[in-house]
User: What shape does this take?
Amino acid sequence: MSQQPPPSPHQPEPAARAEHAGPAAPSAPATPPADAAPAAPSDAPEGRPRLRPRPVAKPPVDPAQAAVFARPRDVRGSFAPRQERGEQKSAGLLLTPPPPEVLQKAFRRPDGSEELLQRPPGSRRDDDRGRAESPFWNEDAERDPWRDPAAAAVLGPPAVDVEEGAGGEPKERAEGARLSLRELLFGRRVRPTALAALFGAALLVGAVGGFLGRLTAEEGSPLTSPDVTLAEVTPGKERPAGSVSDVAGRVLPAVVSIEVVVGNGGSTGSGVVIDGGGYVLTNNHVIADAAKGDAAKLFVVFHDGTRTQGRIVGRDPKTDLAVVKVEVRNPTVIQLGKSGDLKVGDGVIAIGSPLGLASTVTEGIVSAVNRAVRLEGEGGGPVVINAVQTDAAINHGNSGGALVDSRGALVGINTAIRTASEGGGSVGIGFAIPVDDARRIAEELIRNGQVKHAELGVNTKTVMDGSGSGAQVQNVRQGSAAAEAGIAEGDIITKLGDRAVRSADDLVVAEHQQKIGQRVPVQVVRQGRQITLEAALKSD
Assistant: This one.
């Protein structure tokens, strides 16, 4: 027989589980403890008594805490007794005073009204419709967005009464009468003092606005300030005939850009249209690369942007001139002038494509004429030109371009510049081949494709002494015009034909100005004596 564990303090007495243990043996009733609560009447079935809750233990209250936290003597409940407005408390404080009489008249209920909720103006009472009062103002009040916290804010018409017309639509209000100017001034509809005040305000606003506008205009534009004296401007002619702009406008269409393309490289220069058949005069060094092989291509670009391929007609390395032909219709041809009429100080204009900048115009004057200038020719050989010197800005790419006078006539072909350093830009010293020489060379190239020059047949060098300078003969070629004329080594040539010779370059220029077979006087100095010989120049 196993022993059962003693009952847990939280378990009911064995008698409470009698229905599970079976019929119990009769026993004496248990005596309740002295502090147990009296048994409460129970509706439970017989044999299942209910226990009453134990009484709440009330610990003693500290008199000091009771004096601080206890209710006042006259207060029995949790809240103070309600007092009428204006009634004085025991502490002598006055409750909220009654509202002002003006507010009472504006917002109080009508006399004799028992309604607890005000209605909107003009609404009908529900009891007038024969039904019970609705908690809403109208039938659609339940869908009123003002009563829906989640409704979006929408700007609607003002909450005013709208008069309805015959069809139930809002009735438009008739436009009221307007005051005419006569009624406003003489109809006594407006007080004279109000009209005077309005007129005075308008005058004041106009005066203040005009004053501020003047101050703003004077401060914003110092040119109109009375403290500034402006220089006077007199009317003048705009681009008169003969001005740079007038000349440039007439000459630019006759000046072209020349491009030579060789593989991935190339060069650019300028040219001048001298004949209606499409003949373009330029420098030999501009198109020299195009003559070296079939792979090179030559293009001519006109002032209006027309681009066409050109072919070489002829070239003269000794004078650095060449002629190119393009197939165009009705080209603009430049007018040829006379370089022999140029004087130092005459105004000239240079037109070309310096540094690839097409149709560039610069202005200057004639700095010198008949200037013998030695250049580096094709293959490294010397080239001597009888140049017109100018201070018009000329740079790389101007070569072959036009040098025109103040009338717009061609007086030279821009060819070279002189700078302070190798590869530098313009410093105001430029040289052009005179048009008188260029015309003769161009005509010969167009007719024959090549040019023959007259020569004396000597090699010379420049010499100077106390009495002057000239070209000293270093050697004389056999069978040359100089040998036939009796010119010997050591002679100093000082004049050939009509041109004075002060250097070896002057002698070359003087030879090119003569015709082949022409007999010309040659002035020489031999052993301190001046003698004159006659030579028949031969072809080179």
